[in-house]
Amino acid sequence: MLFPLSPPSPDHVRLSLRPLTLSDEARFRAVIFDLDGTLLHSVPSLTRVLNALFAEEGLAPLDEAQVCAMVGEGAGLLVARAYGARAVGSGTPEDPGHSGRVARFMACYGADPVSGATLYPGAAETLQHMAGRGVRLGLCTNKPEGPTRALLEAFALAPLLGAVIAGDTLPWRKPDPRPLLATLERLDVPPGEVLFVGDSAIDVACARNAGVPVVVLAHGYRQGPVEALGADRAFQGFDDLMPWLAKVAPGDRA
Ligand SMILES: O=C(O)COP(=O)(O)O
Ligand SMILES: [Mg+2]
């Protein structure tokens, strides 16, 4: 281990750090990716599962745009928000029926997280090229570990990733910095040499809390314009991210 993973105080978690400026001269040994909205377009599969449960309960279906706005803070909040949109429960995890709804969702989603999910164009190629050049790759997602691992296997990404931290791997989720810090610790790379690639305000807040530079992909799930996320850089998708990554993360076999 290169450095200790010290648990930050709650104040540290709330701390808002000044955005970093990322020049083309920056160099990274490792790149950590978010999953939903970054590598994987998962909203069709999440919408399918939610609507299957809703149909059993006589609730009107949600559309994908509604579900997009609910993703990013883990399965628990997704389920609370989805049922809240149908006036079932309070829309928060504190609702008495919440844990039963999450258990039903996880049973259904865990049985098939893959149908309807697709990798964004260029995602697999980008990871393959980077891994081939010796760049260390990790994944830090708020999606629970069971479906995360199933999706990584199904899309052949698992062998490319040296570290995977999911939403229930640790007692904390993004925007707490500890999942991201644990990912780079497992990659054995210090925060100054790693870049995080995400899609949401949660990812940017997590990276800031961890002191890790962050770029975002505009194809993902967020509220408002991509510039408002306050990331160090924004890219449309892998077509424009990949050439830039080749410069800033050349790898030790380049
Ligand atoms: O499960 C979620 O809510 C989002 O997952 P993500 O962290 O990969 O975007
Ligand atoms: Mg995401």
UniProtKB/TrEMBL annotation:
Pfam families: Hydrolase
Gene Ontology cellular-component terms listed: cytosol
Catalytic activity annotation: 2-phosphoglycolate + H2O = glycolate + phosphate
Enzyme class: hydrolase
Gene Ontology annotations of biological process type: carbohydrate metabolic process; DNA repair; glycolate biosynthetic process
Enzyme Commission number, as recorded: 3.1.3.18
Keywords for this protein: Carbohydrate metabolism, Hydrolase, Magnesium, Metal-binding
SUPFAM superfamilies the record matches: HAD-like
One GO MF term attached to the UniProt entry: phosphoglycolate phosphatase activity
Record function comment: Specifically catalyzes the dephosphorylation of 2-phosphoglycolate. Is involved in the dissimilation of the intracellular 2-phosphoglycolate formed during the DNA repair of 3'-phosphoglycolate ends, a major class of DNA lesions induced by oxidative stress.
Family: Belongs to the HAD-like hydrolase superfamily. CbbY/CbbZ/Gph/YieH family.
UniProt name for this protein: Phosphoglycolate phosphatase
Gene name tied to this protein: cbbZ
